[in-house]
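Budget justification aside, the reviewers requested a transparent look at the raw inputs and outputs of the sequence design task funded under Objective 1. We therefore reproduce one unedited record. The lines immediately below are the structure tokens for a 143-residue chain.
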């Protein structure tokens, strides 16, 4: 699982912060992303790679709890997306909306969806557009 968060600075949370929903990842990597655009750099962008070896786990509750955790300590926007979907020019854009399977804006409950048909729907794209608007507001407030 790949989780990205903008707004919580460049200091990653410790591994223990992701012991949520009764699960502990089998592997954990966290790192601030390099070559951040200036607007993003002011807020910080951290990527978390959370791996589980048991493919039978239903990770919806875990994804929701992980997103809630990364948005808990201030004003932030976070999302969970399939590997290879990240590019600074496409942050939460319509082009990658179907590759984002969860999102959270500080102060709101996380939204998680795993059904591919839903991820390709107009309704999901509209939800991602709203999160992108929240990200744009966050970025412009930091200017």
């Amino acid at each position: 699982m790949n989780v990205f968060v903008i707004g919580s600075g460049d200091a990653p949370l410790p591994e223990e912060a992701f012991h949520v929903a009764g699960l502990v990842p089998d592997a954990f990597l966290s790192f601030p992303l390099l070559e951040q655009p200036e607007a993003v750099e002011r807020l910080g962008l951290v990527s978390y790679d959370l791996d589980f070896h048991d493919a039978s786990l239903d990770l919806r509750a875990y994804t929701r709890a992980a997103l809630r955790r990364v948005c808990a300590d201030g004003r932030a926007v976070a999302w969970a997306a399939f590997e290879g979907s990240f590019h600074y020019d496409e942050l939460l854009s319509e082009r990658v909306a179907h590759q984002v399977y969860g999102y959270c804006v500080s102060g709101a409950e996380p939204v998680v969806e795993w059904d591919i048909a839903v991820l390709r729907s107009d309704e999901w794209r509209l939800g991602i557009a709203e999160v992108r608007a929240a990200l744009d507001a966050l970025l412009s407030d930091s200017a």
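The radius of gyration is 14 Å. The first strand starts at residue 2 and ends at 6. Computational costs for records of this kind are itemized in the attached budget.
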